[in-house]
Amino acid sequence: MPNYNHARFLPVSLGAVRRQNVPADEVLVLDDGSTDNSREVLAELAAGWPQLKVVHNESNLGVNATMNRGLELATGDYVAFIAADDEVLPVWLERSLPQLEQHPGTGLVCGLVEWRCQATGMRWQQGVRMPARSGYFSPAEMIQLGRRGVLQIAGQHALYKRSALVEAGGWRPELHWCSDWFGGYTVGFRHGMCHVFEVLSVFNLSATSYFNTAESPQQRQETMERILDLLESDRYADVAKPIAASGTLGGFGWPMLRLVAGRHRRFLAWSFFRQVARRVAEGFGRRYFPQWFSAFCLRLFYLRRKVC
Q1: What's the total number of domains in the chain?
Q2: Per-residue DSSP letter, 207
Q3: DSSP 3-state assignment of 110?
Q4: I want to staple 113 with a disulfide (CB 3.0 to 4.6 A). Which of 51, 86, 143, 154 is the partner?
């Protein structure tokens, strides 16, 4: 768990980790040079919790560099990266670990995530359009899910095979807010993924969330271009093929379409265009529709199905 000036959230986020039905073997919190009272809060939380280890960066390194340091320090076979202002539900490890044990070749396991917008009060669940069952999906099956526009990897609570994530390059700092997207899909398309059709975490979307404040629109587009350049490189050539076949890049919307149509046309596909259209429609709806109507559409679109 990287932390920078999130002292007020730590009792909730770390409390959720501690209340797991199946406890974690090791909990690392890397404080990235906080200037609030994070040190005091962490010291209090660590008292009587031997699994919790607190590491202090000598200077502010940034989120991705801090997570990479955590990846180096972690001793377990499986690792997860939890935001200091999010929450994992008590069943998170209880549901995730059996999938990894049953499918030892898989690269990661994740489930549904509930998004909570602090500004509007809207709530919706992502991942509900995945097949309504828990189990393993091969890279080929992931491609088919992507073509249908339902593939979802919830980085908020994904549990990764550590060796697979290291092989993927960990969290690439030059990708900023997209580093977990790139790492997750690289691991998934190389090794397959397991999915749990159950809500495993809560993503608290606020004005201070990294998701909202990390970059300007121009920087976001530059980051997307870096993603495409990496996929065009020899190191990730094997990942570029399923990314192109699945149309997954379409989830970045209109800015990605402009880039792909310019220099990276190999990623153009019907599924790509469909996902671009969906992203554009979502953005249009949030901007121009009344809040009550947007909330209704979110509940309708992300309607949760029964597990079969």
Answers
A1: 2
A2: T
A3: strand
A4: 154
175: tokens are 């990708």
CA distance 73 to 2: 13
User: Do 54 and 202 lie in a common domain?
Assistant: no
Q: Rounded to the nearest 10 degrees, how much is the dihedral formed by the CA atoms of 16, 18, 19, 21? A: 120
Query: Residue 37 has which token pair?
Result: 């009272």
pTM for the full predicted model? 0.88
For residue 199, give the DSSP letter.
E
Indicate if 260 and 155 belong to the same structural domain: yes
Is residue 308 situated within a structural domain?
no
Rg (CA), the chain: 19
The per-residue pLDDT for 237 is 96
Domain with 272, as residue range(s), is: 77-301
What is the Cα–Cα distance from 222 to 230, expressed in whole angstroms?
Answer: 12
Instruction: Characterize the bridge pairing of strands 108-117 and 193-205.
Output: parallel
Which residue in this structure is represented by tokens 């340091």?
Answer: 69
Give per-residue pLDDT as tens, 263-304: 899 999 888 998 888 777 766 555 645 655 555 555 555 544
Q: Position 100: which residue type?
A: L
- Give Dmax (Cα) for the chain: 57
Residues 11 and 112 in one domain: no
pLDDT per residue as tens digits for the range 207-240: 555 555 556 778 888 999 999 999 999 999 999 9
Q: What angle is formed at CA 172 by the lines to CA 84 and CA 7, rounded to 5 degrees? A: 15
- 83 and 69 part of one domain: no
Exposed e or buried b per residue across 120-137, where buried means at least 16 C-beta atoms within 10 angstroms of its C-beta? eebebbbbbbbbeebebb
